[in-house]
Design goal:
By secondary structure, the protein is of the alpha/beta class. Helices cover 53% and strands 12% of the residues. The strands form two sheets. The protein has a six-stranded parallel sheet with strand order 7-6-5-8-9-10. Strands 2-3-1-4 form a four-stranded antiparallel sheet. Strand 8, helix 13 and strand 9 (276-280) form a beta-alpha-beta unit. The longest helix is centred in the last third of the chain and has 50 residues, at 322-371. The radius of gyration is 29 Å and the shape is elongated.
């Protein structure tokens, strides 16, 4: 069994294609359930954000799981296999572990180092746990990824490097609006991205901020956290018409704002032709792209805010500072995780080997009892101890050495557990019967709990 990650992201696919494959929570649950119902996937997690869709599975067979994931993504998105294949990335086993750790740290984000993806991964983990899609393999791996991400943000200066999508959008808005601090601003939605938007706006000194959301209670909760005001959903269009800056990120299916409605609202507010910036950070889009045709309106979506230089630049000071520090942290954590995982996989086989050796000692002592007159208890105990010492010494070197070899693998670790099972003719059913801690025990031991939130 091995970890497999298959997906699309802003690095491999255009935004319009990512929009087609975007999944809401229910669709993600159905996808995970379908994969687990096939014959090649035991555990599954689906991570769907504004600029990526990733499927993380514990795969029984590589090609079988890859085939099932590709077919499922094609059916859900309505895209052909040819349309998907050119944009899919695939990470397997050790590289899959490294990718998840890098993802949690923000190294694979559109804005390198941003922390929003860490919350999105936490939310997806919580959903997968609630729905029973995880077990003893992916659950501890994903919790470890969260811990690595938290370490990266706590122990390095990666937060100083990161520039969130909101910040990138505001940088562009400054080129249009005379005074960003005085801009009449409307934030549509009350989820994680909207919360980040409000917090960033307040930090940037924007004074007039209104939150609009379908669920009024969520809007009130977000607004009260930052000391801003709310507007009812029924006032959305008129609020947009009179706004200088609009930031939207909802979970709506279909456009929240279209060209005729925005044109009428701007006309009613006497702002036809006046400069306005609309930042659409939703996936799928909240704003009809045709709105950009309106005079004075500057509409920027996710595709417009992509980092033009996503690859690491060795001449960039960030690559020798916080980013380099995070890369070093990830490398160390991946090595430690893989060493522990390989040692854990070896454990059941070594336990079965010790059990087999104990049975040999018992059998030989029974044979001795049948061939000799009954021995005094202390003499029999001494004989048994001698036999046991001989067995222990014979097993000590190979078991110690196999642990060292397993921990010191290079690019492709050998399956030493399989070799032991073959050499000592161990029953695979007996090896499999060695218990692993249940999910709750793993969570308790790691002290990690995932919590989720919705966007609208």
């Amino acid at each position: 069994m091995s970890v497999l990650v298959v997906g699309l992201s802003h690095r491999t696919a255009p935004i319009d294609l990512l929009e087609q494959v975007a999944l809401d929570a229910d669709a993600g649950h159905r996808l995970a359930s379908r994969l687990r119902g096939g014959g090649h996937v035991d555990e599954a997690l689906v991570l769907s954000t504004c600029n990526r869709l990733e499927v993380v599975v514990e795969a029984g067979t590589f090609h079988g799981a890859l085939e099932e994931i590709g077919a499922a993504l094609g059916e859900l998105s309505g895209l052909t296999r040819e349309q998907l294949t050119d944009h899919l990335f695939v990470h397997y086993d050790e590289r899959a572990v490294a990718h998840l750790f890098e993802l949690a740290c923000g190294l694979d984000s559109m804005a390198v180092g941003e922390s929003q993806v860490l919350g999105q991964l936490r939310q997806s983990l919580a959903a997968a746990q609630r729905n029973g899609h995880l077990g003893s393999s992916l659950n501890p791996l994903l919790q470890q990824a969260l811990r690595v991400g938290k370490r990266a943000h706590a122990e390095t200066g990666i937060d100083d490097v990161s520039r969130s999508l909101v910040t990138l959008g505001l940088d562009r808005a400054r080129g249009v609006l005379d005074d960003l601090g005085a801009a009449r601003t409307v934030v549509i939605g009350a989820g994680a991205m909207s919360g980040l938007a409000v917090a960033t706006l307040v930090r940037e000194g924007v004074g007039d901020i209104a939150v609009v959301n379908r669920t009024a209670a969520r809007a009130e909760r977000l607004a009260s956290q930052h000391g801003v005001r709310t507007l009812p959903w029924s006032d959305l269009t008129s609020a947009v018409g009179s706004a200088d800056l609009v930031i939207t990120c909802t979970g709506a299916v279909g456009h929240v704002l279209d060209e005729p409605a925005v044109a009428r609202a701007r006309s009613d507010a006497g702002r036809t032709g006046a400069p306005a910036v609309l930042l659409d950070l939703a996936m799928p889009r909240d704003i009809d792209p045709a709105v950009s045709r309106l005079r004075g309106v500057h509409l920027w979506g996710l595709a417009d805010l992509q980092d033009p230089s996503p690859e690491a630049d060795p001449d960039d000071p960030a690559e020798t500072g916080p980013v380099a520090a995070v890369r070093g942290l990830v490398t160390s954590e991946v090595a430690g995780y893989l060493a522990e995982r390989h040692a854990a996989r070896l454990g059941p086989t070594l336990a079965a080997l010790r059990t087999s050796a104990a049975r040999v000692v018992d059998a030989e002592m029974s044979r001795l009892d049948q061939r000799l007159p009954p021995l005094p208890h202390d003499e029999r105990a001494e004989v048994r101890q001698t036999v046991q010492r001989v067995v222990d010494k014979l097993l000590h070197t190979p078991t110690t050495r196999v642990k060292q070899l397993q921990a010191g693998y290079d690019e492709v670790p050998a399956d030493y557990a399989h070799a032991l099972r073959e050499l000592f003719d161990l029953d695979s059913r007996e090896v499999a019967s060695v218990s692993t801690p249940p999910l709750g025990v793993v969570e308790k031991a790691t002290g990690t709990r995932a919590e989720g939130s919705s966007d609208d």
